[in-house]
């Protein structure tokens, strides 16, 4: 990361879209990728749910859920090496499958999932923040939580608007706190009196009680790995943009796997998987495993540090969501698929300021509306993100294999990394999407239903259908992109990204 440049200096080394070149190195890119996943928050709210489904084989679910993620990371790496663009999946899918598929899968679905995630992250961060400052009773007030969450969104939006250099610098500190808190928790839990010795059998997938629990657990695990691809959207601001983001993607996913497995082994060793008391199978603990275990594992002030880490994790991911989304819409606008205002760059900060503000406002409005309608509805909205993740990751994996199909005979490396692995990852993701869609159709899945159909299904599949309708409308507004987009995305931007006023 370039430290010597002041944030109020004019952007230097800008490229075709006006973004500040060479702002972030490999370490900064990895930090952005890890922070966008919110590792402390993700493991806290997911490990209990996975354990309820799979018992002591929860680490196996974490490992198996990682496989399609790693294969998809190879697809991202190879496609970014070929077409380094902050639009990432939008550009790649458009190039391979055409403008309509690119607009829906690489554009709409990704941004819709991100806004849904931002509402959850802001809400969780607000609730934990109120607890930490001694306003515990307010954490049970939807109004207080919503107001605090909107203020967090406003602060994160202003920070992201100031520039990727500042965002990456903040992420170092926030990520360091998260990893330190998880390491302290894990070491203390494994060394506690009465803790069971970890067993390799916990990694054995044969311990699942049938395919249904196995598939459900793996799909749950997809959510805790999702988000690392946000670092790819900063590729035009990263040193050696053709290689560094791809390397950072693979590194960040491997670090996530190690962190999650260590935490899962430690938690199971300490608390077990029982359905009472501190057991991870206790539904009362499923919502936040770390909050339930940290006081007895660490006690006192150290437990508060873990709670702070969960709050920080949510806020850090919120910041990275804003960074990634605004750059994706910058690319879409630059190639003529969105209004040109999204492509305008702030003259001093070198950021897509308008797009950043739009996503902050959208998340705040959606959070307010969903909270007003029903807290349960907001919960189902978060669960529907799994469908959207599987959909666009799957399409990206297939796009990689198809794009490089004529090169696969050149070498064993190309065959494996550009063809076999991305194709396998894409097929796994599509299979997960189909299975999850079938499961969520049941009105008993989640907490809401409409007309005998599960609310999670309606939100997930409904958002994809809505995206197709939006693309049909966009075709009328941006006919040039939908006519020439397949070739335009690898040429110069269609619009001229003039600076912000």
UniProtKB/TrEMBL annotation:
<feature type="transmembrane region" description="Helical">
    <location>
        <begin position="142"/>
        <end position="160"/>
    </location>
</feature>
<dbReference type="InterPro" id="IPR050367">
    <property type="entry name" value="APC_superfamily"/>
</dbReference>
<feature type="transmembrane region" description="Helical">
    <location>
        <begin position="454"/>
        <end position="476"/>
    </location>
</feature>
<feature type="transmembrane region" description="Helical">
    <location>
        <begin position="305"/>
        <end position="330"/>
    </location>
</feature>
<protein>
    <submittedName>
        <fullName>APC family permease</fullName>
    </submittedName>
</protein>
<feature type="transmembrane region" description="Helical">
    <location>
        <begin position="96"/>
        <end position="122"/>
    </location>
</feature>
<keyword id="KW-1133">Transmembrane helix</keyword>
<feature type="transmembrane region" description="Helical">
    <location>
        <begin position="172"/>
        <end position="191"/>
    </location>
</feature>
<keyword id="KW-1003">Cell membrane</keyword>
<dbReference type="InterPro" id="IPR002293">
    <property type="entry name" value="AA/rel_permease1"/>
</dbReference>
<feature type="transmembrane region" description="Helical">
    <location>
        <begin position="26"/>
        <end position="52"/>
    </location>
</feature>
<dbReference type="Pfam" id="PF13520">
    <property type="entry name" value="AA_permease_2"/>
</dbReference>
<feature type="transmembrane region" description="Helical">
    <location>
        <begin position="351"/>
        <end position="375"/>
    </location>
</feature>
<feature type="transmembrane region" description="Helical">
    <location>
        <begin position="211"/>
        <end position="228"/>
    </location>
</feature>
<feature type="transmembrane region" description="Helical">
    <location>
        <begin position="58"/>
        <end position="76"/>
    </location>
</feature>
<feature type="transmembrane region" description="Helical">
    <location>
        <begin position="249"/>
        <end position="271"/>
    </location>
</feature>
<feature type="transmembrane region" description="Helical">
    <location>
        <begin position="415"/>
        <end position="434"/>
    </location>
</feature>
<keyword id="KW-0812">Transmembrane</keyword>
<keyword id="KW-0472">Membrane</keyword>
<feature type="transmembrane region" description="Helical">
    <location>
        <begin position="381"/>
        <end position="403"/>
    </location>
</feature>
